[in-house]
Q: What sequence folds into this?
């Protein structure tokens, strides 16, 4: 019996609510020359039972049972037994358009590429709606010059850190994965970046399909990325693995500052959402292990000049004082709020908090904010007055970096 063209690897762990939808959309693919490798990663719910039911219905489904080891471990286990010429990863709580594999395969073979990427719909589980506002998932950073062709990371340098690294909206050439010795870092979350960069850093060819072919479920109850637990410290290891993949590139200098900007943002975001009891350990690990804190690699004058906001937040984080960091971040965010107030609709002060927007009609007798002589002057009912010193030119620089 000949080997299938595409091996679809589906890691499965306690997703009894979603796995049927996922498998149904894979079985319904217009490209049928596939094997579906379901890696049961020690599920304790009915997921394994559901897999057995589907295995009986379709001979293309193969089950690999293993002890729970995490998503990276499950994907790597699937890679070891995959027989296809091409590899697709689909997470078991997501689903795909029935033409996904056909369109990705067509692009890959037509342009002889190593990776083909499609656009992604984010499906908000809480709101039960699709969100296509994030260019990271919609291929929004790729202009029309990338259509209908093969290209390498060198053409992506201006926005390489904005390319979606997720494993599941892509088709990979199996021989390329083997040649690059690409594996998912075992035991870590946010494992996709090191895998992706270990391939494209070898100057491998890429193509894109602009169609929305993958449905990524977000805000799912029980998802590990929503818990803020100790595994959030993994981001430091993941960023270091990505750095090790690109540091020896001949044009590393062209991308290293964008790498600093994006990866400090990732680290700060994980720290902000981390359970407070792990924050001290997070900072200690960052200082001891991350290349981002190496001032010889990332000179402070250069970083501060390019990315002032990121630089100061990252410096505050490295102090190790949670309270100091929180105070400094509050002040910096307040400056941004001031800019929103000062720059928005004429005749109104526009106040924004998270997703909530409130417009207050400008009325000097009630509430007034104005800027003069490097000072922000605020008053309420002309009785409560306070001044905050800062330079507008500095704020404009912050705004450029954001």
A:
């Amino acid at each position: 019996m000949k080997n299938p063209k595409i091996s679809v690897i589906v890691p499965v762990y306690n997703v009894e609510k979603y796995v049927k939808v996922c498998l149904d959309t894979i079985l319904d693919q217009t490209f049928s020359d596939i094997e579906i490798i379901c890696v049961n990663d020690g599920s304790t719910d009915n997921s394994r039972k559901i897999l057995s039911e589907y295995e009986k219905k379709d001979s293309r489904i193969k089950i690999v049972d293993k002890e729970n080891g995490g998503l990276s471990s499950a994907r790597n286990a699937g890679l070891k037994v995959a027989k296809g010429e091409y590899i697709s990863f689909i997470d078991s709580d997501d689903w795909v358009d029935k033409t996904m594999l056909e369109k990705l395969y067509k692009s890959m073979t037509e342009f002889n590429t190593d990776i083909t990427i499609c656009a992604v719909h984010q499906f908000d589980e809480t709101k039960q709606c699709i969100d296509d506002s994030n260019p990271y998932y919609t291929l929004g950073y790729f202009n029309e010059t990338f259509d209908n062709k093969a290209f390498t990371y060198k053409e992506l340098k201006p926005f390489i850190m904005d390319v979606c690294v997720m494993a599941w909206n892509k088709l990979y050439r199996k021989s390329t994965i083997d040649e690059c010795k690409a594996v998912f870092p075992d035991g870590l979350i946010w494992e996709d970046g090191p895998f992706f960069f270990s391939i494209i850093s070898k100057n491998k060819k890429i193509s894109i399909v602009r169609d929305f072919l993958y449905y990524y479920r977000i805000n799912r109850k029980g998802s590990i990325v929503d818990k803020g637990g100790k595994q959030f410290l993994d981001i430091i290891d993941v960023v270091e693995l990505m750095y090790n993949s690109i540091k020896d590139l001949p044009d590393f200098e062209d991308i290293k500052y964008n790498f600093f900007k994006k990866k400090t943002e990732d680290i700060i975001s994980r720290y902000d959402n981390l359970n407070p009891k792990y924050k001290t350990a997070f900072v200690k690990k960052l200082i001891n292990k991350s290349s981002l804190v190496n001032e010889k690699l990332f000179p402070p004058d250069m970083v501060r000049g390019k990315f002032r906001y990121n630089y100061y937040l990252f410096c505050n984080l490295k102090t190790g004082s949670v309270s100091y960091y929180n105070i400094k971040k509050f002040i910096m965010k307040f400056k941004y709020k001031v800019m929103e107030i000062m720059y928005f609709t004429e005749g109104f002060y526009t106040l924004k908090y998270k997703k909530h927007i409130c417009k207050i009609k400008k009325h000097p007798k009630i509430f007034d904010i104005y800027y003069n002589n490097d000072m922000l002057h605020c008053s309420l009912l002309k009785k409560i007055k306070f001044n905050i010193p800062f330079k507008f030119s500095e704020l404009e620089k912050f705004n450029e970096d954001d």
User: Anything to note?
Assistant: The CA atoms of residues 104 and 116 lie 6 Å apart. Confidence is low (pLDDT under 50) at residues 394-402.
